[in-house]
Amino acid sequence: xxxxxxxxxxxxxxxxxxxxxxxxxxxxxxxxxxxxxxxxxxxxxxxxxxxxxxxxxxxxxxxxxxxxxxxxxxxxxxxxxxxxxxxxxxxxxxxxxxxxxxxxxxxxxxxxxxxxxxxxxxxxxxxxxxxxxxxxxxxxxxxxxxxxxxxxxxxxxxxxxxxxxxxxxxxxxxxxxxxxxxxxxxxxxxxxxxxxxxxxxxxxxxxxxxxxxxxxxxxxxxxxxxxxxxxxxxxxxxxxxxxxxxxxxxxxxxxxxxxxxxxxxxxxxxxxxxxxxxxxxxxxxxxxxxxxxxxxxxxxxxxxxxxxxxxxxxxxxxxxxxxxxxxxxxxxxxxxxxxxxxxxxxxxxxxxxxxxxxxxxxxxxxxxxxxxxxxxxxxxxxxxxxxxxxxxxxxxxx
Length: 398
Ligand SMILES: *Cc1c(COP(=O)(O)O)cnc(C)c1O
Fold this sequence. Notes:
By secondary structure, the protein is of the alpha/beta class. The protein has helices at 3-13, 53-66, 74-78, 81-94, 105-116, 131-139, 152-161, 184-194, 216-219, 248-257, 259-262, 269-284, 286-305, 325-337, 367-383, 389-397; strands at residues 23-24, 30-33, 36-40, 98-102, 122-126, 143-147, 167-172, 197-201, 228-232, 242-246, 317-323, 340-341, 343-345, 355-360.
């Protein structure tokens, strides 16, 4: 049998095969999935901005005015007025000197880490960091040291061992599969003490944490104090693309060394126009951030009340940890039959033995629909034997 057929068969056998489902219409709190209307519990369109009328309008106007594509890399001929305007706004939003756009968060992380972590240096990466950070470390010429999740002692031990080699620490602000928050104050202190550069990925924190949704860095009181803050335009900001918020000097360095910036077409004008409009909406409506936070708490409490294991979640990302990939898939299908879509997440996206449903709320979900979904998940988990009925009863009686 050939290699491709063999791998596909093996993936199916161990419950790790992935397939695409078709979503019709915009990413709202409810969508039509493979023909049926369901409650959407796995979109990162946290604030509902991807389908907000003003954001759509801004994308359409940018397309009319500047065209559908940027035509080239920024360094060739693709550097447009919209890119510059958005960078100025993003730097203001993040409280940094400057910002630099990338094609996506994936490209930003791979490019930035490879540019900063040079030969002879060491890059320290949390074991639960996003795959794009893992790949950035693989591309970097520096040695990679993975530290235990959010473990400051382990990180410090590594920093001490590294002596006076150039060092970079990189961490998610909010961890994408667990919904917990990095101990940024402690990490920043260590970075200062050992002279390491610090990169924080705010993909799931922007629009969700901190004053005005400015992210986990702002929530920790560290605005302007982190070497590079990476943000995506594709999640809360409802568009596509990403940015590094940093100093003017590091921006200049990245323009000259980050390969995904140099060798890839500039982000398209409609996405830039949409992101500008989304930023304005975020800034003018802090209530949406508060609503997202409340919805996260509602879902977490409801799932916990069912006796389900929501891990360390503290944000709008709430996992239901199941263990085996097969059970996670089965639970996903059962819940879908009840009318709610929460994607099953399996290794290698999460560590072996921690397959889960990963639920995300949006600001425009209603509390009662989140509670109903939590109840259905609890019921299905009991039917599948994931949850002992006794434990659930004990918990709800407590
Ligand atoms: C989604 C995500 C990215 C990638 O961002 P895109 O703009 O979607 O490429 C990077 N880091 C983290 C933590 C993410 O969750």
